[in-house]
Design goal:
Blueprint: H1 2-18, H2 29-32, H3 54-76, H4 86-90, H5 112-122, H6 124-141
Helix pairs in contact: 3-6, 5-6
């Protein structure tokens, strides 16, 4: 019963996060995985993001970063993500600057091996897309190291998503 409730929760939050538009028939990930986006002008060098002012980050996010992220997401689901905006990741707080990351409004995966296995079983395409396209591209665009499974450091799911509490 707990697994069914979690599966429903994962499905519901993925559906809410993705918006109302229904995607066209699924395309195999290999055919839709975007190439790594080109680094936009003015992108942070490795380790530099944490030293940038809010204004520097905002200008970069609204410029080259959004264009590169939009390319990643629309290569995977062109209809669903054609209107990718600051609100897609940051929620309504993006409008007035009161957002926080990670964002509680995004899909809330279950932390740990059990959650990972459940997501892999329930939404393998989404998981592959996030692992192979979104995490590496976003880490690179922010000048951050990609998640290292051995050291458990670097940019990962948890910089954007808040984990679901385990009942």
């Amino acid at each position: 019963m707990r697994s069914l409730a979690r599966a429903r929760s994962i499905w519901l939050t993925l559906a809410v996060t993705a918006g109302c538009a229904q995607p066209a028939a699924p395309v195999p990930l290999a055919a839709r995985a975007p190439a790594m986006p080109a680094m936009p002008p003015g992108a942070p060098r490795p380790g530099e993001w944490a030293t940038w002012s809010h204004d520097q980050k905002l200008a970069y996010m609204k410029g080259g970063f959004m264009d590169a992220e939009r390319a990643v997401f629309t290569a995977w689901e062109p209809v669903r993500y054609r209107d990718l905006s600051c609100r897609t990741c940051h929620g309504p707080g993006a409008d007035d600057g009161r957002y926080r990351m990670p964002n509680i409004e995004l899909t809330r995966p279950i932390r740990g091996v059990e959650g990972f296995r459940e997501l892999a079983a329930q939404e393998p395409g989404v998981l592959r897309f996030m692992q192979k396209a979104v995490v590496p591209a976003t880490a690179r665009l922010l000048g951050l190291p990609e998640f290292d499974m051995t050291a458990h450091t670097g940019f990962s799911c948890w910089q954007c998503h808040v984990p679901q509490e385990d009942p």
